[in-house]
Task: structure prediction
Amino acid sequence: MISEAATARTMAVEGPVAPIDARLRVPGDKSISHRAAMLGGIAEGTTRIRNFLPATDCLATLEVMRGLGVEVEYSSDEVLVHGRGMEGLVEPARPLECGGSGTTMRLMSGLLAGQPFYSILAGNAQLSRRPMDRVARPLREMGATILGREGGRLAPLTIQGGNLKGISYRPPVASAQIKSAVVLAGLFAEGETAVEEIAPTRDHTERMLMSMGADLIVEGSTVRVRPSRLKAIDVDVPGDISSAAFILAAAAIVPGSRVVVEGVGLNSGRTGFLHALERMGAVVRLHNEHESNGEPVADVEVAYRELKGIAISAEDVPGMIDELPMLAVVATQAEGMTEVRGAAELRVKETDRIATTAAELTRMGADIEPLPDGFRLHGSTTLSGAQVSSHGDHRLAMSLSIAALVAKGATTVEDTECVDDSFPGFEAALRTLIGGGSNGE
Result:
């Protein structure tokens, strides 16, 4: 049983639930939606985006583009971004509000670094606590003037762009946001800009730029870009694998269950969670594999099988960074120890996801030990219903709601409004799981 409070800020689930047998879809990919809106704004022509994610974070990106003079037509069927070309953006009359979206602020920093005008990127209290110097540092090296609180470490960021020079840069951490910011700035910089990754990360930016005609090549772990003109394209956004992870995890931990999520994007930098489920023993199958706009897409099936604990190393983390709170939930139902290391990046997400995940799962009876760069969890554990908090973090809110499916008794997750940051309609999808059936076409 699942119920939602009238305020839409709490969610109650009565567990354990019966075996799940469902087929459904999840909303459009968040990362691709952001990039389609941004790149469409500097392309020549109209970019048509189907299945755009109507989440709070992505809507913030649309508003930022409007603030730069880009005409955006939004409907439930598609988003039309009427590009202004590489030199067409205009100086904003007021601060550009990014809400809680780190992707918006970091990628827009790179795009705005190339503009010959002054701009301000602002965010809510949560975003204003997240580090921005990792992006600002290479952009300053390229020639942009970027100021922020605490010596430029925190938002709001003020940017005076233009007159950039290409650089060769090796980010100190594996981050698609840093890579993308530097690559976007490189579109406007004199000469070549090269970014060498220390570990592979999602490559949505590179794929979309190449589809739009950018002078960009990928050589091993290095992305090279030169000043380019972009042409508008039609973008069909696949289902978000990070959202699908919550639904698929439910099948992996509820005995006797099977779930198929249709039309999921399977970018090679994003499939770490599926590989982890396979290593733990779950049944994972792909159906209807194909490509859309250069992105691999498939229907993903997960079926229950007894799980065992595994070790996740630093090399594994970039491909599943957003899914690690959900992995902790899965690990509570796996026999033996699961250990995650090399994930210190979790400490600077919407919350300190190591601390909050450990604290809230402990309330439910999990045997979890937070580590400086991850966690150690002993299973399997019979979870108990409890009153837990999302701490305003959408990933944690959904992870705890899935944990409630196998807990004994009622679990109330407080502050679930934040799920709209990435997965509007999550509560309805959860009802589909519990009730069985389909929410697909």
In short: The chain has a mean pLDDT of 95. The radius of gyration is 21 Å. The CA atoms of residues 110 and 181 lie 4 Å apart. Residues 30-42 form the longest helix (13 residues).
